Amino acid sequence: MRGRRNRPAAKAKVKSQTATPGSEAILRRNIESLQSGHPRYSEMSPDLQDATREQLPRMAEDMTRWGPIENVRFLGVGSQGWDIYQVTHASGSAIWRIHLADNGIIDGLLVQAGP
Question: Domain 7-113 maps to which CATH number in 2.60.120.10, 3.40.50.880, 3.10.450.590, 3.30.160.20?
Answer without folding.
Answer: 3.10.450.590
